[in-house]
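Holo model, zinc ion. Inputs:
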Amino acid sequence: MPDSLPLFYSPGHRRHAPADHSDAPERVEELRQAALDFGARACAPGDFGIAPIAAVHSPELLALLQTAYRRFAQLKEGPRPAVPDTFAVRESGGARRVAHNIWAQLGHHCTDSLTPILPHTWDAAYAAAQTALSAAQALYESPLVYALTRPPGHHAYRDLYGGYCYLNNAAIAAHWLAERGRRPAILDLDYHHGNGTQALFYERADVFFCSLHADPADEYPYYAGYPDEMGAGEGEGATLNVALPADTEATAYWRALDWALAAVDAVAPDALIVSLGFDTLAGDPHGGMRLSPDAFRPIGRSLAALGRPILLVQEGGYLLGALRPALLALLEGLT
Ligand SMILES: [Zn+2]
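Output:
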């Protein structure tokens, strides 16, 4: 079974390496080595072009991600990471205007100060989206596929980037599959709520979104991920949020997961896209429930018991050294 696990990965992620930042390239290199040691088959992503990305994100956001660093470099301060210093306010007393000014556009399209745009950020984000798309295509051949994406994606909205995320890799893959008549469900297991993914499918009935995460009353992203957010319009009932205490231990986590998976099973998806975060590991610098690496083995078993094709799309997880045993345990459980 392990040799049937395709691993999609692009070395292009290394070109995006913010200084003094948790989203370090080493994270994904550790996961890649663990997957290869498990017996995964390395696959080079193809190029699906910009269309499947533009189907999910706004033209303004895509243009900004591609040009922000270059435009910033032309400012008198000289080349430096593009990070907003002023954010668009909720109420301006009139229509919100977005000037041509690079500062105005950054503050309009970014949710936080944690997500710099560097010279090759667009290249890395584009490569990650293509990695997710290539893995989605491989799902037609294999029951389990791993898209080892970096930068991550689940905090990126149609028109907003933030939370280390620029393009929403899982959402791009889900929309691509849905356009081809599939009925994917997304299960987000990152420690942080997948606010961008939720927003992208909030009014859609064709992609069920379920997230298990630390209670946003205490943790990033703070403004979304509450249990009373259940979708709207045609998507009413197609969003499910399970907010857990930040110190949740393994048995309670497994129980919540099985409950969530029963809800996923009830909508009978023909593919499960897992937004895979390892920042639920105890000791993670940006999260950390009370999960040991071994706790991921039963998680893998529960996912496999659903009996659907599974696409793993990598999101967060920042505890170097623990990522390897956690991924190995998960893959053992899955297979
Ligand atoms: Zn996270």
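The first helix runs from residue 25 to 38. The chain has a mean pLDDT of 96.
Archived with the compound record.
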